Protein: Metalloendopeptidase
Organism: Mugilogobius chulae
Amino acid sequence: MDRIILLYLLSACISAVPAQKFLYSSPWVPRGIQEREDRDDGTIMDEIIKANEFQASRIIDGSTSLREGDIAVSAGRRSKVCFAKSCLWSKSVDGHVYIAYNLSPEYGEIEEKLIKKGMETVEKGTCVRFVPRTHQRDYIDIQPKSGCWSYLGARGGRQTVSLQSPSCLQVGVIAHEFMHALGFVHEQSRSDRDNYVTIMWPHIWRDRLRNFEKFRTDNLNLPYDYNSIMHFGMYAYSQDGEPTIIPKSSQNIKVGQATTLSHIDKMKINRLYKCGDNDDY
Ligand SMILES: [Zn+2]
């Protein structure tokens, strides 16, 4: 009898330990993310990293994975040759670039409003206009899948933009994903970035080093933009709480953007789509 009680107690202890651990310990988070939560220098990209790294899978499906943190790439397709002109949405004779969209019926009213605000943020001061899809062949299909991500540029046909609710439904995050769909990579991936920022490789989370690659981009004759909505924050993918990106010109420059497109972001859109630089669209 004693033995049975002992066995019972023993098994109760064993099963209680992992259960307790599971219930009460917070999930592992790199120190950089933990320490930054109370600070006010967060950026759009920090929100995307939080949503994608801690809730979502990096593999979207068997053949599609995320590059640079939130750009979807399909294996087998000519991956990523859209650093500028090869994947543009077509431009209408009236001078606008109309992007047809389908919005998942899974979104509620408030979510829909936020997504439309994200669209307006991109439209303001640019020639881009989002229009509900009627018959268009090429369109973005906005879906609350796992995480916040988009393909780069126009792929032809239907292409998903994932905006998970609620973690991706901030206006800035939405606008950032639309910028990828328009054809833009992250600002610090620019070909000339080493003149403007120092990448602090030893502080980067080991298996995310590839998120800091640079590419042969067409910079459209525009200056490097620390304030771009497409710029990683200073602590992106930090494994030890130290900065991973340091501006070369001044330590006081804020890197990244917390809310909206910068003026240069809007100019980028207008130049890529040859719409002219004026704001009166
Ligand atoms: Zn991004």
Summary: The helical segments are 2-24, 31-36, 44-54, 109-123, 171-182, 263-272. Residues 48, 69-70, 176, 180, 186 surround zinc ion (CB under 6 Å). Residues 2-24 form the longest helix (23 residues). The chain has six helices and ten strands.
